[in-house]
Design a protein that fits this description.
Layout lengths: L2 H28 L27 H14 L4 H14 L4 H19 L1 H6 L8 H9 L1
Helix pairs in contact: 2-3, 2-4, 3-4, 4-6
């Protein structure tokens, strides 16, 4: 390579990143972020993002189902029995039992108040249900 070609290469190596950064910065400052006209709104997805994603993990599905049972008026004691039955059927859920039982305790306080919620306590997942009740009471 000749001396001139090396000098041009070094100059480009120094100048090109600066030009790219400045042009990117200028491009961002030119975007009318605050303009809410329909032609300027950027959409991330065609789907409605206000709808929560459905849980896929078995423990999330179970927790949501059991919380729904409490919200629909089923007694927390019966729901705790359902939790124990599910853990017995699928031992892989045992590691999530504590978190689910606490969530059930909190939901029971919301539905029944702390005193009545505590009356439903059962020895499911140690004392996790009671811990959930106590954290809300």
């Amino acid at each position: 390579m000749t001396h001139t070609a090396r000098r041009i290469g070094r100059s480009l190596a120094l100048v090109l990143p600066v030009v790219l950064v400045l042009s990117g910065t200028l491009a961002v400052t030119m975007v009318p972020w605050a303009d809410n006209s329909p032609s300027q709104i950027l959409t991330a997805s065609a789907e409605d993002v206000s709808v929560p994603a459905k849980p896929h993990a078995a423990q999330d599905v179970l927790r949501d189902r059991l919380l729904g049972e409490i919200r629909q008026g089923e007694e927390p004691g019966d729901v705790l029995t359902h939790l124990q039955q599910e853990v017995d059927k699928r031992p892989s859920l045992a590691e999530h039992c504590v978190g689910i039982a606490r969530a059930l305790g909190r939901a029971a306080v919301d539905a029944y108040g702390p005193t009545k919620a505590q009356s439903f306590a059962r020895p499911v997942c140690d004392t996790s249900y009671a811990s959930g009740v106590a954290s809300m009471g």
